[in-house]
UniProtKB/TrEMBL annotation:
<dbReference type="InterPro" id="IPR023465">
    <property type="entry name" value="Riboflavin_kinase_dom_sf"/>
</dbReference>
<dbReference type="GO" id="GO:0009398">
    <property type="term" value="P:FMN biosynthetic process"/>
</dbReference>
<comment type="similarity">
    <text>Belongs to the flavokinase family.</text>
</comment>
<keyword id="KW-0285">Flavoprotein</keyword>
<keyword id="KW-0288">FMN</keyword>
<feature type="domain" description="Riboflavin kinase">
    <location>
        <begin position="37"/>
        <end position="179"/>
    </location>
</feature>
<keyword id="KW-0808">Transferase</keyword>
<keyword id="KW-0067">ATP-binding</keyword>
<comment type="function">
    <text>Catalyzes the phosphorylation of riboflavin (vitamin B2) to form flavin mononucleotide (FMN) coenzyme.</text>
</comment>
<dbReference type="GO" id="GO:0008531">
    <property type="term" value="F:riboflavin kinase activity"/>
</dbReference>
<dbReference type="InterPro" id="IPR023468">
    <property type="entry name" value="Riboflavin_kinase"/>
</dbReference>
<comment type="pathway">
    <text>Cofactor biosynthesis; FMN biosynthesis; FMN from riboflavin (ATP route): step 1/1.</text>
</comment>
<dbReference type="GO" id="GO:0009231">
    <property type="term" value="P:riboflavin biosynthetic process"/>
</dbReference>
<dbReference type="GO" id="GO:0005524">
    <property type="term" value="F:ATP binding"/>
</dbReference>
<keyword id="KW-0547">Nucleotide-binding</keyword>
<dbReference type="Pfam" id="PF01687">
    <property type="entry name" value="Flavokinase"/>
</dbReference>
<feature type="region of interest" description="Disordered">
    <location>
        <begin position="1"/>
        <end position="43"/>
    </location>
</feature>
Length: 194
């Protein structure tokens, strides 16, 4: 299971370092090798769960949470932090008409796996930000993700504005990383419902 340490078989919330101005100024615009390397790609799926409601409302970055049962699928990822890859949301057969064709595409994503130290979460979450503006909610719809690389460690922040700035940088880094040919081809992976 994704964890930095464990107590009694349950992941323990680690202390996260604070994001600093020097960290922000030295962030690379692209990360990782030109081809995914083990443990990537990592695949996970599950019905989209309601989260804390902070992503869209407080941070301007809506997220789709994978259920706790999906976390073991991410066991090859052993470090909390921010990752990049592709994701697809599929509506149940009886609700397909409420979902646009664009909403059903395979989309680039950035995913946070961790405890969100700024908000002092007490449980591990996998929160996926799909880089697309959806026209409606999709709680309960199935989501598949292919995680292809690591962007940065989980950090704590002294302000909401610093967190938002890093999230925006994470999104741009993810898009640049996924534009590389060996990553881009995963958007057509047979894992997704194409």
């Amino acid at each position: 299971m994704v964890a930095d340490s464990e107590t009694n078989g349950k992941p323990e919330r680690p202390t996260a370092p604070f994001q600093t101005e020097s960290f922000r100024l030295t962030r690379p615009t692209i990360v990782g090798p030109d081809t995914p390397e083990p443990p990537f790609p990592v695949r996970a799926s599950g019905p989209v769960q309601r989260g804390f409601g902070r992503g869209g409302k407080d941070l301007g970055c809506p997220t789709a949470n994978l259920p706790d049962e999906s976390l073991p699928q991410l066991q090859d990822i052993t470090t909390t932090g921010v990752y990049y890859g592709f994701a697809q949301v599929s509506p149940p057969k009886d609700q397909e008409s409420a979902f646009s064709a664009e909403d059903a595409h395979v989309l680039p994503m950035a995913m946070s796996i961790g405890w969100n130290p700024f908000y002092k979460n007490e449980r591990l979450t996998a929160e996926v930000h799909l880089m697309h503006e959806f026209k409606s909610d999709f709680y309960g719809y199935n989501m598949k993700v292919i995680v292809l690389g690591y962007i940065r460690p989980q950090l704590d922040y002294t302000s909401r504005e610093a967190l938002i700035e890093d999230i925006e940088t994470d999104k741009q880094v993810a898009l640049r990383c996924l534009a590389r040919p060996e990553y881009e081809k995963f958007a057509s992976d047979t894992y997704f419902d194409l």
